[in-house]
Structure formats: structure tokens, C-alpha cells
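Sample entry as discussed:
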Amino acid sequence: MENEMKKSRFTESQILAILKQGESGVPIADLCREHWISNATFYNWRSKFGGMDASLMAEMKSMAEENRRLKKMYAEMAMQNELLKDALEKSSSAVSS
């Protein structure tokens, strides 16, 4: 199973702009209504991206994608390793029979 990151309908710059509006005193309920997002989405964004600029946000997303790719690569190599071990065991037991 592949763990895909959910694609946001908002760009990084849009998310940062919405967070900045919240920091500047715009009521969160008004922001959420205006942008059609839930309060939970706003607070998730704030906990994840609060205080970041666009370059940090892009770097974090890039690192998350690289991490996902490396985990997938590791899982594939671990599976190949198990298959090779099984094949070796079967061939050595066939030779010793």
C-alpha cells in the first residue's frame, strides 16, 4: 500500500496568505467561511506551517516526498531480500536432499 499525501486544493502561497490573515486579527470563523475550509483545516495548517515562509514550506513538502520515496524503495528491497532468502533456502535444501 502506498501512502500518498493528500493533494491540497490550495497552493503553499494561498495557505500562507490565509494564515497571515489569521495572524493579523481576521476572525478565524470569518476566514474559514470566506475560503470554504473547516476550523480544523485552519488549525492543522497553523500547527504544521505556522511561522514558515514559502521556501521552508516547499522544502518541507519536498523532504516529505523524498521520505515517502525512500520508504517505498526500502520496502521493495526488503521484499526482494526475503524472496532471495527463500530461494536460497529452497535451493540448498534441494541440493542436500
Remarks:
- The chain is about 75% helix and 0% strand.
